[in-house]
């Protein structure tokens, strides 16, 4: 099977995000960028399928600056075979990202691969659009928010999370899948994988055009600071404050 996994880099959850002076980007100097957590579920599922189907390859794709290299090596360490770095630092919207990825995937495999994995969303910009957009551009179906996947290489049985329950779906391959937490437990790289990752080649391709982005980000804003809490001594005092200050009782 030919399997593609698209991974994005997001700030580590412990990072303190500061908006840069242009008001449109964040200061990245002290920020540690990690693989988007949902993309780790996508990658794990791809590697599990590679282990099940002999002769399969897992290729990872990412758009970004040189700071993506460390995360591509991490993808190698847990089992990816090939990596394509689409080198670019110019902001683009989800449609711009999707167009570049779809073109790169087709050109890398010479055809549409059997499975194309994404995270259900990135944890920084949370668009949840790139996966379905790539599916449309490749002319294949997309199943989103997937929590279980079984395939014989030709068809797939899929469970996806919906409000208050699960939905079971059957579909033929090729297919786009967007991964949700619960799909699997991503493995931790072992020493053999880390050593092997050092010598696997990364194919770097410049991104020369962004004809597809239609949106421009005008401003980023942080939420207003929360008011400092107040300690109250007794239930009667609390009820009094809810009545006189919060005016909710
Ligand atoms: C080079 C570059 C520079 C950017 N600069 C800015 C900026 O200055 N200011 C700003 O506000 N935004 C910036 N962005 C972010 C951009 O606006 C979002 O990445 C884009 O809108 C996609 O939205 P999302 O990440 O929420 O995608 P979602 O649709 O939530 O992502 C879903 C999935 O798509 C895949 N995916 C998403 N992004 C990538 C990627 N880059 N490479 C591979 N797979 C991916 C992953 O599998 C991810 O889980 C930049 C993006 C790029 C690529």
Topology:
Elements lengths: L1 E5 L2 E3 L21 E3 L1 H16 L4 E8 L4 H9 L4 E6 L6 H16 L5 E5 L10 H9 L3 E10 L3 E8 L2 E8 L2 E5 L11 H9 L2 E5 L28 H10 L5
Parallel strand pairs: 1-4, 1-6, 4-5, 5-11, 6-10, 7-10
Antiparallel strand pairs: 2-3, 7-8, 8-9
Helix pairs in contact: 2-5, 3-4
Bound molecules: flavin-adenine dinucleotide (FAD).
Flavin-adenine dinucleotide binds next to helix 1, strand 4, helix 3, strand 6 and helix 4.
Give a brief rundown of this model.
With 249 residues, this protein is α/β, with parallel strands linked by helices. Helices cover 28% and strands 27% of the residues.
Could you describe the 3D structure shown?
With 249 residues, the protein is an alpha/beta fold. The protein has one domain: HUPs (Rossmann fold). 28% of the residues lie in helices and 27% in strands. It has helices at residues 37-52, 69-77, 94-109, 130-138, 191-199, 235-244; strands at residues 2-6, 9-11, 33-35, 57-64, 82-87, 115-119, 142-151, 155-162, 165-172, 175-179, 202-206. The protein has a 9-stranded mixed sheet, sandwiched between helices. The termini are far apart. Bound molecules: flavin-adenine dinucleotide (FAD). Flavin-adenine dinucleotide is lined by residues 6-8, 24-25, 36, 38-39, 61-64, 88-94, 97, 101, 118-119, 121-122, 125-131, 217.
């Amino acid at each position: 099977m030919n399997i593609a996994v698209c991974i994005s880099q997001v700030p580590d959850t412990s990072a303190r995000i500061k908006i840069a002076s242009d008001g449109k980007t964040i200061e990245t100097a002290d920020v540690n960028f990690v693989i988007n957590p949902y993309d780790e579920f996508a990658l794990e599922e791809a590697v599990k399928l590679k282990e099940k189907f002999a002769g399969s390859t897992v290729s990872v794709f990412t758009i970004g600056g040189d700071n993506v290299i460390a995360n591509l090596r991490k993808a190698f360490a847990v089992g990816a075979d090939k990596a394509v770095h689409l080198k670019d630092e110019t902001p683009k919207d989800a449609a711009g990202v999707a167009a570049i990825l779809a073109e790169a995937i087709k050109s890398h495999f010479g055809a549409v691969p059997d499975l194309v994995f994404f995270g259900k969303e990135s944890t920084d910009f949370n668009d949840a659009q790139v996966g379905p957009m790539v599916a449309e551009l490749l002319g294949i179906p997309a199943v989103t928010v997937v929590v279980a996947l079984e395939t014989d290489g030709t068809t797939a049985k899929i469970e996806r999370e919906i409000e208050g329950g699960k939905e079971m779906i059957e579909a033929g391959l090729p297919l786009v899948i967007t991964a949700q937490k619960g799909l699997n437990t991503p493995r931790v790289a072992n020493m053999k994988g880390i050593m092997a990752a050092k010598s696997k080649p990364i194919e770097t391709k410049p991104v020369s055009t962004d004809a597809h982005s239609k949106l421009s980000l005008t401003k980023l804003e942080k939420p207003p600071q929360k008011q400092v809490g107040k300690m109250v001594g007794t239930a009667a005092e609390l009820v009094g404050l809810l009545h006189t200050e919060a005016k909710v009782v």
